[in-house]
Structure formats: structure tokens, C-alpha cells
Write a structure and sequence with these properties.
Blueprint: H1 3-17, H2 24-31, H3 35-47, E1 52-55, E2 61-64, H4 77-88, H5 96-108, H6 112-122, H7 139-142, H8 144-147, E3 151-156, E4 162-175, E5 178-185, E6 190-195, E7 199-204, H9 216-219
Antiparallel strand pairs: 1-2, 3-4, 3-7, 4-5, 5-6
């Protein structure tokens, strides 16, 4: 059994017995590897966001939160590749890290034979990127909506003049040339759009502000057509 198949099998084994634990020794014997290998596998799964935790004690081991994992899904290899390509397009968006994690979870949740076929197809597909790719978005800006905390920023205007602002994150607007963070600017006491590439410094404060609504009218975009993301 290769490592990819073993990772998938470990998750399935823990799902079957959840919420009871399985020890590293039990899993090592089950998959005919060392306990150290199982510990590395569990660490790799945790790094991808799989909800596994260690339960201490003589009868302890590794537990899986089955309510937060996907059962095997019946995607065809073509469907899986199509979704993976769509997720790849998010590389220059605030959801880069989330897209990579989602792609790994998608393959891990597939039947092993279909997952292997999807990997084979994906290995034959290449994407041509622009000579000058858009800059990556800093992690604390990319996670601004999910954390919901006030950002303390130093922002440069068109002329390069810097200002210091506390901003309540409200949303994002993306275009072919870059991304904007939409937020309630306490310096201007109004909603403002901040070009991500003009944010010189940013830190996340401990403050969680009261929720504010954000409508299409609030954005007041002078050009282009806005389309909203719909999860169906």
C-alpha cells in the first residue's frame, strides 16, 4: 500500500470507530508499518485540516471527529479534475490556502481507484501562467473575513502617501488586475476599498467588532460588472 492510499485508509479506519480512539501501535500493526510512520501520517493529515486529535491515557490513541469529515464521494475522475482546476485558479485570491486544503480533502474523500485515475489525468494537464503573476495575498488579509477581527493597517494612496487605519473587514472584490479588501474604515468613518498591493503593513488586533452588513450598493463600483459568489 502506498502512502496516499494508507492516509486515506487511516481516516476511514478512524471514522469507523469514531468517537473511540485507535492507538498508534494498533494502526501500525493494521497497516504493517512502524509506529513512527503512523505518527508522521497522522501529523500530515492534521496539517491538511483533517480533524484528528490525540486522546491521552492507557486506553487513548487517535480520534476522528466524524461529523467534520467527508465520506467517500462518487465524483468521476473528470469531475474531480475539473474541480481541482477551478480551485487552482484561486492561487492569487484570498482563498489560496483554503483552496489547496480543499483540493487535498477532495481527493482523500474519493474512492481510491477513482482518485488514482484523477491524479493520472491531472498529471497530463498544464496551465500557462502570465509572465508577471499577481502577488500573493498576505495570510492575515486572506483570513480577515473568517477571523472577523479589526485590522490595523498602514495604507499607501496613489501618490504613495501613507496613512494608519483601523479597518473592520467586510468583504473582497476581485478583478483581473488584483484584489481589494472592503472594510469599514474608522479613520474615514465609512466603507472603503483597499487595494491589497497598497497595504504596506497589517496586523490583526484582538477586537471583534459588531457585525456590519455589506450590499452591492455599498460597493459603488464605477466600472465593470459585479457578480456574487453563489454556493448553490
Amino acid at each position: 500500500m502506498n502512502r496516499t492510499d494508507r492516509l486515506y485508509a487511516i481516516v476511514e479506519e478512524l471514522r469507523v470507530v469514531a468517537p473511540r480512539p485507535r492507538s498508534a501501535r494498533w494502526l501500525a500493526e493494521r497497516f504493517e508499518v512502524s509506529t513512527r510512520t503512523i505518527e508522521r501520517d497522522i501529523d500530515a493529515l492534521q496539517q491538511t485540516g483533517t480533524p484528528i486529535w490525540a486522546e491521552p491515557g492507557r486506553t487513548g490513541g487517535y480520534c476522528l471527529d466524524a461529523a467534520r469529515t467527508l465520506r467517500p464521494v462518487n465524483l468521476t475522475p473528470d469531475e474531480a479534475v475539473a474541480l481541482s482546476i477551478g480551485l487552482r485558479m484561486l492561487e492569487t485570491t484570498p482563498f489560496r490556502a483554503a483552496a489547496r486544503s480543499a483540493s487535498r480533502k477532495l481527493v482523500a474523500a474519493m474512492q481510491s481507484g477513482d482518485a488514482a485515475s484523477a491524479r493520472d489525468i491531472a498529471g497530463r494537464i498544464h496551465l500557462l501562467t502570465e509572465d508577471v503573476p499577481l502577488p500573493a495575498i498576505p495570510a492575515n488579509i486572506a483570513s480577515a473575513l473568517s477571523t472577523g477581527r479589526v485590522l490595523r493597517m498602514t495604507y499607501a494612496d496613489k501618490a504613495g502617501a501613507l496613512s494608519h487605519r483601523d479597518v473592520e473587514p467586510l468583504g473582497y472584490v476581485g478583478s483581473a488586475t488584483g484584489w481589494y479588501l472592503i472594510g469599514w474604515c474608522r479613520l474615514r468613518d465609512a466603507i472603503r476599498a483597499f487595494r491589497v498591493d497598497r497595504i504596506a503593513t497589517v496586523s490583526v488586533t484582538a477586537e471583534v467588532p459588531e457585525p456590519r452588513s455589506l450590499t452591492r450598493e455599498d460597493l459603488d463600483i464605477k466600472y465593470g460588472l459585479l457578480s456574487q459568489i453563489d454556493l448553490g
